[in-house]
Amino acid sequence: MIEFEKIDKEYHVGDQVVKALNEVSFKIEQGKLTIILGPSGSGKSTLLNILGGMDRPTRGTVKFNDQLVSKLNDHELTDYRRKVVGFVFQFYNLIPSLTALENVAIAAQLNNNDYQAEDYLSQVGLSERLNNFPNQMSGGEMQRVSIARALSKKPKLLLCDEPTGALDSKTSIKIMKILQDISKSSETAVVMVTHNPKFEQYADHVIRLKDGQIEKTYDNENPKIVEKI
Ligand SMILES: Nc1ncnc2c1ncn2[C@@H]1O[C@H](COP(=O)(O)OP(=O)(O)OP(=O)(O)O)[C@@H](O)[C@H]1O
Ligand SMILES: [Mg+2]
């Protein structure tokens, strides 16, 4: 469904060249959970941003189904980001002056979605928090709103950069459970960047990065199911 072929990404800082990704190739399938691990600076966010059309590779090709994402012009790339990709970030990025419901509703509107924002919030267990503002919610609740917001775009690709990075371990597991359920119950491919090696066992597919290169990549035939807490 998604294919990275020999992706290089270089950043120019002054007269220095930083090679953030170096000949990175892999495939990601629909309905699977992929986890990307690696030390700080190994290129995880760079990889996710290229997957999501927020950045372009220096060399190599990115394919989404039959579409060559790496060849899209700016307008087409905006369309790809809007229609194909949902993002979840470490610090939620909710709009502080809007309620949970409103934060999800504006994203749903962008895509003329026929489902209601309430439905997505109930899917992440937040039916009781619809009218709370972000500062009236816990970190785990805010992250669930941000997942509901991403889902309301009905993304084919759900990209999560350290979604549990700011959460305690018990709350992290709850988020992990939601992301695993999404990957199993839909056609959506979920890609999650994490520092936590404990999550590796829950993934269908694991990519380990080191210094901008793939150190190891493998499939879990029987990924562990995240238990409900
Ligand atoms: N916009 C940029 N300009 C210059 N260098 C950059 C830029 N973005 C990233 N880099 C460099 O590219 C390399 C990979 O960065 P990246 O953010 O992808 O790492 P990461 O694996 O996500 O790290 P972390 O775990 O700390 O989030 C790093 O050396 C970083 O300094
Ligand atoms: Mg990062």
UniProtKB/TrEMBL annotation:
Q: What is this protein called?
A: Sulfate ABC superfamily ATP binding cassette transporter, ABC protein
User: EC no.?
Assistant: 3.6.3.25
Q: Which UniProt keywords apply?
A: Amino-acid transport, ATP-binding, Hydrolase, Nucleotide-binding, Transport
Record's keyword annotation contains GTP-binding: no
User: What protein family does this chain belong to?
Assistant: Belongs to the ABC transporter superfamily.
Q: Name one Pfam family in it.
A: ABC_tran
Q: Which GO terms describe its biological process?
A: amino acid transport
The cellular component terms of Gene Ontology attached to this UniProt record, alphabetical and capped at eight, are: membrane protein complex
What's one GO MF term for it?
ATP hydrolysis activity
Instruction: Name all ABC transporter domain ranges.
Output: 2-229
